[in-house]
């Protein structure tokens, strides 16, 4: 088995075009010590297996046993970490830890092209109803440049104390973000200092279990038709007023 493991890590190193020195530096050992591992003269410890798994983006089972049917769940393989509502507090607590992603579930989303800066958040609370509802899952992407966020964009803020989903309302104060809710019952906007913000994420989409009943779709269609008719009536009244004003002159 030792020889098989040595052959696999040697093949992976050559496939990625890495030198023995480079791999040895990642394992925090000398090149000579690493060379002995590749040549099956020395065994390999668990810590090195884990580091090589991350370096080559393969499973530890592949390195140890050659199993190829196991997919390593990582950002580079199209998986996105999912932070449930019940895990929000833990996420905030471990935010600065190197391995904060380990406790979370990972998912692939059909039709969604993930990147290194994306996460899934389960919504709690109804401050953004009816746009997003409790239990909806938001697909979020980190936005490091605030000036690129358009007025009215739906964003998720990670602060020292909370995870907040709101709309960004542009305002002249450069030191604060002004946030507003889609829920008509919450009329007051929230003002947050930029110094309190750990991360700003754009909401790119959502996954929901809610289906709109057929009668609501029909009602919305009627309302939309009434709104269009009212807009047309306003234009006709405006034209008529212009004609009356011209006749008066």
Automatic annotation (TrEMBL):
<protein>
    <submittedName>
        <fullName>LexA family transcriptional regulator</fullName>
    </submittedName>
</protein>
<dbReference type="InterPro" id="IPR015927">
    <property type="entry name" value="Peptidase_S24_S26A/B/C"/>
</dbReference>
<keyword id="KW-0805">Transcription regulation</keyword>
<keyword id="KW-0238">DNA-binding</keyword>
<dbReference type="Pfam" id="PF01381">
    <property type="entry name" value="HTH_3"/>
</dbReference>
<dbReference type="InterPro" id="IPR001387">
    <property type="entry name" value="Cro/C1-type_HTH"/>
</dbReference>
<dbReference type="InterPro" id="IPR010982">
    <property type="entry name" value="Lambda_DNA-bd_dom_sf"/>
</dbReference>
<dbReference type="InterPro" id="IPR036286">
    <property type="entry name" value="LexA/Signal_pep-like_sf"/>
</dbReference>
<feature type="domain" description="HTH cro/C1-type">
    <location>
        <begin position="9"/>
        <end position="63"/>
    </location>
</feature>
<keyword id="KW-0804">Transcription</keyword>
<dbReference type="InterPro" id="IPR039418">
    <property type="entry name" value="LexA-like"/>
</dbReference>
<dbReference type="Pfam" id="PF00717">
    <property type="entry name" value="Peptidase_S24"/>
</dbReference>
């Amino acid at each position: 088995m030792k020889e098989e493991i040595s052959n696999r890590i040697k093949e992976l190193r050559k496939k990625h075009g890495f030198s023995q020195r480079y791999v040895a530096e990642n394992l925090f050992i000398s090149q000579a010590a690493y060379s002995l591992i590749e040549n099956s003269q020395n065994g390999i410890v668990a810590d090195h297996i884990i580091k090589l798994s991350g370096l080559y983006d393969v499973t530890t089972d592949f390195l140890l046993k050659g199993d190829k049917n196991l997919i390593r769940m990582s950002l580079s393989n199209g998986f996105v970490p999912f932070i449930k509502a019940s895990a929000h507090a833990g996420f905030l607590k471990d935010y600065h830890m190197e391995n904060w992603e380990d406790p979370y579930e990972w998912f692939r989303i059909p039709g969604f092209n993930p990147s290194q800066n994306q996460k899934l958040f389960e919504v709690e609370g109804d401050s953004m109803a009816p746009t997003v509802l409790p239990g909806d899952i938001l697909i979020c992407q980190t936005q490091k440049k605030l000036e690129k966020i358009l007025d009215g964009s739906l964003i998720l803020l990670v602060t020292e104390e909370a995870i907040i989903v709101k709309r960004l309302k542009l305002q002249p104060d450069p030191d604060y973000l002004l946030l507003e809710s889609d829920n008509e019952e919450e009329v007051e906007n929230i003002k947050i200092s930029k110094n309190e913000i750990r991360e700003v994420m754009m909401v790119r989409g959502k996954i929901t279990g809610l289906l709109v009943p057929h009668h609501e779709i029909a009602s919305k269609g009627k309302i939309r038709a009434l709104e269009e008719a009212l807009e047309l009536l306003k234009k006709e009244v405006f034209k008529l007023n212009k004609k009356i004003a011209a006749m008066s002159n």
